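Note to self: the last two entries modelled the partners one at a time, which told us nothing about the interface. This time every component goes in together.
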Amino acid sequence: MVDTPRSPLAPARFPTLPPVAGVRLGSMAAGIRYRGRTDLMMAAFERGTTVAGVLTQNRMPGAPVDWCRRQLAHGRARALVVKSGNANVFTGRAGVAAVEATAAATADLIGCKKGDVLIASTGVIGEPLPVERVTRILPKLYGRLTDKAWRKAADAILTTDTFAKGATRTAEIDGKTVTINGIAKGSGMIAPDMATMLAFFFTDAKLPTAVLRDLLKPANERSFNSITVDGDTSTSDTVLLFATGKGPRHGKVETAGDPRLKAFRAALLDCMTDLAQQIVRDGEGAGKFVSITVTGAASTAAARRIGLTVANSPLVKTAIAGADANWGRIVMAVGKAGERADRDRLAIRIGGHEVTRDGLAVPGYDEAPVVRHMQGREIEIAVDVGVAGGAATIWTCDLTHGYIDINADYRS
Amino acid sequence: MVDTPRSPLAPARFPTLPPVAGVRLGSMAAGIRYRGRTDLMMAAFERGTTVAGVLTQNRMPGAPVDWCRRQLAHGRARALVVKSGNANVFTGRAGVAAVEATAAATADLIGCKKGDVLIASTGVIGEPLPVERVTRILPKLYGRLTDKAWRKAADAILTTDTFAKGATRTAEIDGKTVTINGIAKGSGMIAPDMATMLAFFFTDAKLPTAVLRDLLKPANERSFNSITVDGDTSTSDTVLLFATGKGPRHGKVETAGDPRLKAFRAALLDCMTDLAQQIVRDGEGAGKFVSITVTGAASTAAARRIGLTVANSPLVKTAIAGADANWGRIVMAVGKAGERADRDRLAIRIGGHEVTRDGLAVPGYDEAPVVRHMQGREIEIAVDVGVAGGAATIWTCDLTHGYIDINADYRS
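The predicted structure of the combined assembly is written out below.
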């Protein structure tokens, strides 16, 4: 975590995360990039733990992403090891060897297969990872794992973040209450010298790998895939969901569509959305949290693309930074998305105030209340493109001098 | 033209544009948005003039773009009228009426059909255009047209630009020398309160509409479609090429592939590239001019997409602004483009210095000469993605505090 001031959009405090049966975790300072900084996090899972994940679509993935993709195929997990300060991306054969060495050292400690160790890294791209600093300290870290170190684990995975990110939910399955804990890091998709998006979820529910996968994908689409800071996709983005099955015993679940999972699905989405929004709230230089809701699109996918195009438009983002009710830029961005949109039915609302209707500013449009809304910290934009029923919501932040400071003037 | 300082990347002076036989032009202050600012430009063409054009792909085009699309179908032109200060975009039926009134008033003066008048507008989006200010002054402007007023015409179409943009070339067709003049406005694709990309080319060669179209499209792809400032596509982008056929008489040309057009094709591309690069050099807040050459891609289109993804990455652009030799961001952007790229063969050069080879930093990589190059005004990035023979060059500028100043802090 760098010494930039805490984001003005940060939540008041880190929530209290309860233990999740079957999970022990902890963190230490391995000196991967900086001395004395907590940069190594480990979680150990009891036998029988399943895992599902989604990984970056970037065509230049790091060695840890390649490793996770391979292990997610079998869907079993006994440990998770996360390093911050070095992304181990674009590091060639040495990068692959670093991942293998980490997995081997961890498997030795736990007494499991190498392939049951999931690995993630975040930080600088293109520098060799000093893996011996990690393997040297792992036995000591393993000896200290507890079921309570959630905040310490959340701290260990941060890089340019200005606050630690955690969330917790419970849900009933079959009348039994299970827990979902999540931790994340990231200032958006931002992948500068030091950053990437990582999120890890842990539940004590008993869910087969196939069910986990089917639960994770749509929830990820509506949470982490619905945020953007600057549209730059990291080479390390990783979301993993672990299920230990060590919580209160509930009936056997065999499909994600099982009606008994209704509350769990909702709680998982809620927990993931919470952390996704926390990442936006820690977007580099962010001064405002922006929700963009698109309705009336040709499909959900079309609504998402339009929303993301508005959210990624530098002109929309700078207008929001300047509290400038410049809705012409929203029109431009909707048109640029390339999706079907009816210019002559386009309706825009900002902060609930109607701005345009039927392809024109509303008669007697009064900008004053719109500007007042835009001077706040939480901005709401709603766009109806008048074509069909597709809808989606995207979250982003504004583009400010702070972003330029961090990424142009600051040299790590 | 706003009162921001002249771009540090501006050319030393506006070139001397010679007359183009068959073209008379001029400009005046109509008071469209600001009093006393030259904001109306008119060109009149002799009978027989042909025209081809390319127009914005934005789905929210302005009324003038819709009008041009219709008239370009027949490809004849007797006049061009350009207004700055108001884009006449998202203005509903009133916007259509403003275009019709302008065309009718111009056609009356010239004694031609309304459909032979091409119209473009640039400026604020969503405000009604006070068209009577234009139609009132048109007769006076028409009376003053000359064959020399190129600089005045170039001035009249500017908005947030910091310098007027013109270029001229000659080429032989059949041993006869013809002229190509071009004027343009724009600070990139930037479409804030007041901006858009317009470019107009005029030649005295005698070329049928179909030939003009076939000449314009590929040249546009390699010039104006190869630049970006912030990836935001204007609702008014318009490039028009007029041919009067009133220059030295050359043999009849019936196809764009005619070998006698070889020099003309090259001169047109050169003239268009010159103006396209001038637009980048006037990019909002631009401090550096950046050339990105992509080779080894699956196709030309793939190379273009990779180049544009690198050029539009806020992280690459801010690294350039900060003279930060952060090549990991280039790797990230190449991977994010979604095109085929071989991570383990990726080769990057900056300012001619080899940075990566075979998916790794080069052995003994010395950052010092790369940083020295990046401290200059002209930055060269070359990326070989190691897949096939597709190649393209894209031009852009850096992303600086100046951009935020203009678009967030400045309220027009």
